[in-house]
Design brief:
CATH topology: Aminopeptidase
CATH class: Alpha Beta
Shape: globular
Oligomer: single chain
Number of helices: 6
CATH architecture: 3-Layer(aba) Sandwich
Distance between the termini: 35 Å
Helix content: 10-25%
Radius of gyration: 18 Å
Largest sheet: 7 strands, mixed
């Protein structure tokens, strides 16, 4: 892939969503035609810019194991990217709980984001094809979550049962914080801030919520 643009956030701000329905809403109006779209590794900056604009978290890590983008075939510029999947190692606790004998063999889908108005099966297409770039000998276990705070029930992962995704329970309720309308994580590197510290930073606790966990394992 040839990355020709350096200021990803600027060019993405100028990009127009595909399949934008009449009236300006974000409800997709057509199914994605597999022959017309492609998934390939992309620059971290592209995923970061998409996340800031279109994901409720409005941010993410400064690292990645794998980041893949969604393009129409023939379009390769950063500004033409319509979505991204962002894969990272999970927390040490999560890795150990999912694979006690090989916690480093777990990889998490940390962010999944698409431009409003893309075809309605774009998310499942993006995940399915991103997985082709993952070395499953090195990472035999994949994990991701659906945030109930956002009303997500994991429908996109349930639609991927045919490639191994299975619902795997729910997390314990955790406090969720926002600041200026943006979700703020309690974790910064190796440190986890207390409730009091989060409030002191100007964050608002909007409640405690669970997340549904979905796991994909290579059969032993």
């Amino acid at each position: 892939m040839i990355a020709l643009l350096d200021n990803a956030e600027q060019v993405l701000a100028e990009a127009r969503p595909a399949f934008q329905p009449e009236g300006g809403g974000s409800t997709p109006t057509a199914r994605l035609r597999k022959s017309e779209w492609i998934v390939a590794p992309c620059r971290l900056e592209v995923a970061q810019a998409l996340t800031r604009r279109f994901h409720y978290s409005a941010g993410g890590s400064n690292t990645r194991v794998l980041v893949c983008g969604l393009w129409r075939r023939g379009d390769w510029l950063d500004r033409d990217c319509h979505g991204a999947s962002w894969w990272l190692p999970p927390t040490k606790t999560t890795g150990g709980s999912l694979a006690p004998d090989n916690p480093q063999g777990v990889l998490a889908l940390s962010r999944l984001v698409v431009v409003p108005g893309v075809p309605r099966n774009a998310c499942s297409f993006l995940i399915r094809h991103s997985m082709r770039f993952i070395d499953r000998n090195r990472w035999p276990v994949l994990v991701t979550y659906a945030d109930e705070w956002q009303g997500h029930d994991g429908g996109v992962y349930k639609a991927l049962r045919d490639c191994g995704w299975q619902e795997d329970g729910r997390t314990k309720p955790e406090r969720t914080y926002v600041k200026n309308g943006v979700m703020v994580s309690r974790k910064r590197g190796r440190r986890t801030f207390t409730h009091t510290e989060m409030l002191a930073m100007g964050c608002e606790c909007v409640g405690s919520f669970r997340r549904k966990r979905f796991v994909n394992r290579i059969p032993v």
